[in-house]
Amino acid sequence: MHTRILTAAGLALAVAAAPAAALASQSGLDTALLDAKLEAFAAAADHAVVAEVRHGDETWSAAVGPRSLEHDEGDAKPQDRVRIGSITKSMTSTVLLQLQAEGALDLDDPLSAHLPGVLPYEDEATVRELMGHRGGVPDYLRRLYASLLEDDDLTDFYANYRTHYSASELIAIGTAGDQVNPPGDGFAYSNTGYTALGLLIEELTGDDLDDVFEDRIFEPAGLDRTYFGRPGTSGIRGPHLDPYLTTGDPDKPYVDTSGLSYSQLWAGGNVVSTMGDLNDFYAALTDGTLLDAASLAEATAFEDAGGVGYGLGLFGIRPGCAADPGAVFLGHNGDTLGHEANSFHSLDGERQISVAWNIVDRHDTADPDALEKAWNELLYAGLCGEDQDAPAAALTIAPARPEPMTA
After folding, report:
1. Can you tell me the distance from the alpha carbon of 396 to that of 393, in angstroms, rounded to the nearest whole number?
2. How far is residue 177 from each of residues 25, 41, 118, 173, measured CA to CA in Å?
3. Average pLDDT of 6-31?
4. What is the model's pLDDT at position 45?
5. How many domains does the chain fold into?
6. Is the pLDDT of residue 10 over 70?
7. What's the CATH code of the domain at 32?
8. Residue 28 pLDDT more than 50?
9. Residue 356: beta bridge partners?
10. pTM (two decimals)
């Protein structure tokens, strides 16, 4: 599904990941700056936003706007839940890296070495290629929501968003045509590939994917407010932001997308979380709790992905912080046709930001230039700890991937 991510104009590919020492040495959080940038971003789109920024031992968290556009559910709170979409891919990849460290597989194994026939191609992708979206596997979401992708028309959304699918059905939908490219030959974002990786995890562990996430990710990282949405269900448990998609209809500009089936997201996008738990997850990813140093190095071996770096379930970006222009931040973003989330972190874990909001605007309901500028300034303030009143050409949001239909 459509997601957007920070990039800097002429962004150098984050291949060599040097620690952001200059950032870590700055003074504490500028909470007044963060408050102002969050308010400006929320006002630019008139949506609810939840955010948490950490700098060393200091934490700032805030929320703006109502939880619901239709019901009296009170104001948003910083610990409200959202669907995090493709940020889930960082967790799926973490499990696979753990399994490799335990000797259960080699990421350079072809998928068919463990799951023969799951992908119907003679030119086989390796596990590593699928994790890095370099397996050449088409994305099933582009088929389920073709009208939304091509014309911002909600016909396919209304027809399909409540439908429950098995993993094998989604893979069959995604692989009905030819490969996008030969494995290893280019970046093509694929939820189909991550669905196959979910099946691989279940095959190797003998457990359901939600139980694997609980045992290997949520519990060791202390993610007390996070859960894996079970396939065949929908909705969001506990206090949360109601998710909305713009319709293009002035009489009914938004549709509540809470009924989106979890079965359509699964290993690529099924997790529900809070901004605090997202920061806890990436902290555990970088401090050795979830991955050893060698595994983290593999995950952050970023390759070109259309203007940003992509490793194994992780984006790598250089926002161009004044204190350290070369500083690399890892993380991911996600979209579930209603919630958008971004979570990025310095490699030493000292500076973290997680932000989510509850309206996916495919019809330019808000001024896109104003929204872009406000978002860039909030993200820059969180990552760099400074005010950056940058011109649009110097710091912009761009589609994260060539295909905008991603979870």
Report:
1. 7
2. 52, 40, 15, 9
3. 43
4. 87
5. 1
6. no
7. 3.40.710.10
8. yes
9. 50, 341
10. 0.91
